[in-house]
Amino acid sequence: MTTILVPYHQDEQLPHDDIPVRADVTVRPVFPATDHWDRLATGYEAVAAAAARAGERPLVFSGDCLFAGAVVAGLQRAGADPGIVWFDAHADLHTLDSSTSGYLGGMSLRLVTGAHPEEYGNRFGLRGIAAGRAVLADARDTDPAEAEYLATGAIRRLPVAEVTAPPGPFVLHVDLDVIDAGEVPGLRFPVAGGPSAGDVLDACERLLATGRVAAVHVACPWHPAVDEHERQARARLLSRFARL
């Protein structure tokens, strides 16, 4: 298994050791001085290429959820056709039209399942995953527009303890904010009332036991650590995911 580190939140380079894992490959794109979508696509292209070369079940750590689409695109280049299981405190199902904040991370799952291909997927060769092959775990902080989409769409939403996999191979995506905010210091968008880290890891182990996980993507959407205590807490948490 190859471990890939992407030390970026969108196109913002993160401080050294912000994602404290030992990586076989660290992706450091050279971003062009063009529009934001082009800059992002440069990063996603680099991650897709790394994932395509990585071999069996790459493990990717990054600073936000949008890189999940690049992991999927890399597997597609390597000949796979994966679905996705998406662990997140948020639904990440907004579009450019429905978002009130404009934060692109809040659109991540919708983009991975084919929304706005001209801005996102087409720029780095992602073929959007059919909504019926996507499973959303938790999403306890869901906006009205996202809830409406879930009520009418094909994406299945399940509690972490009950999550099951879609048919065929799939990407296991874990946004660490799915874990109760009391356990993960410094999150950008913390949400209380979530499952424990142990609960999430147990669910991941059950999914891995299917033998159909094609890649694992762990998103670490947190602010830079404020002290050594926070850095050590994050390192301990990521070491548990690195052993998956």
TrEMBL record:
* Top-level taxon in the UniProt lineage: Bacteria
Q: Does the keyword Metal-binding apply?
A: yes
Q: Which InterPro entries match?
A: Ureohydrolase, Ureohydrolase_dom_sf
Signal sequence span per UniProt?
A: none
Q: Which Pfam families match?
A: Arginase (PF00491)
Gene3D superfamilies xrefs: Ureohydrolase domain (3.40.800.10)
Q: Which UniProt keywords apply?
A: Hydrolase, Manganese, Metal-binding
One Gene Ontology cellular component term attached to this UniProt record is: cytosol
UniProt xrefs under SUPFAM superfamilies: Arginase/deacetylase
UniProt GO molecular function:
arginase activity; manganese ion binding
Q: Which family does it belong to?
A: Belongs to the arginase family.
Protein name per the record: Arginase
